[in-house]
Amino acid sequence: MIPPDPPRFRLGTRRSPLAMAQAEEARARLAAAHGIEAAHIEIVPVTASGDRIQDRALAEIGGKALWTKELDAWLTAGEIDFAVHSAKDVETIRPEAIAIGAVLPREDVRDVLVGAASVTALPQGAIVGTSAPRRAAQLLHARPDCRVVTFRGNVATRLAKLAAGEVDATFLALAGLNRLGETGTGHPLDAEAWLPAPGQAAILIECRADDARTREFLAAVDDALSREAVLAERALLAALGGNCHSPIAVLTGREGAMLTIRAALYSPDGAERVEGETAFAADDLTAPARLAADLLARAPAAITVHFSGPATS
Ligand SMILES: NCc1[nH]cc(CCC(=O)O)c1CC(=O)O
């Protein structure tokens, strides 16, 4: 008897080294979960506009959509069966035809500081490279004497710029470094004191909402705890009406059967900060939305001008 052909799938990803590492991880987990050869999942790299434009801050040139636009088109056209993304890079408002098929087990959520042992150890007036409004605001809140300069490019490019002395220090996500095998680079910052970005360290796999075969295939690698945390953080972000100019930091934890979510909003210059926390049942995504409304109600105008509130569409 000839055994049936194992299922074949096309996995879409960006081409950056980090995106490729995430794609390999997703493929390995799927192959293991289904007992099939990795070769049955074909990795299809797509060049994203965000990767083509390197000289301007992401927020200036159109934000997170730059990472998903091409993969969305390939997915809806049926050129790929699913797309692997950093959850952090995926907008909160997504096309209706696209669904989250799985969230992989989350990596370490912490940021690392490269170039100094801690934020307090940065020299007076240090020049710090980052293009993330959250990291810039967090830094300036703690260290108004520092100067933030725009810093883009993939992880290796940023580390090379730092080594060349273009800046005194930079921030990177520990998860990205770990996935690239760059372990031991920089100094991890305490996640309670330096809250990460929404979705940080999570890999999100998207497929066509009406593609039952792929949804079932992806469900085998879905990590319920990671999914709950990521959905809560995305619900908070959606209710804030944040965009890529909006400095927002968030940490989700678990206490028994409950989730806790702690979030901070900043003015871009770091002068203003408002923080709040709530505990809720994991399936109650109205709780992060209520926290968002509470934060906006308490925030000064220097913060609220950067948030539009919940989308009405
Ligand atoms: N915006 C780029 C990006 N998207 C995801 C990661 C790291 C991995 C992750 O947070 O999942 C990074 C690089 C960084 O922030 O250092």
TrEMBL record:
Presence of the UniProt keyword Hydrolase in the record: no
Porphobilinogen deaminase C-terminal domain mapped to chain residues: 229-281
Misc: The porphobilinogen subunits are added to the dipyrromethane group.
Native organism: Novosphingobium chloroacetimidivorans
Cofactor(s) essential for the protein: dipyrromethane
Protein name as annotated: Porphobilinogen deaminase
Cofactor note: Binds 1 dipyrromethane group covalently.
Pfam families: Porphobil_deam (PF01379), Porphobil_deamC (PF03900)
Family as reported in the entry's similarity comment: Belongs to the HMBS family.
Keywords: Porphyrin biosynthesis, Transferase
NCBIfam families named in the record: hemC
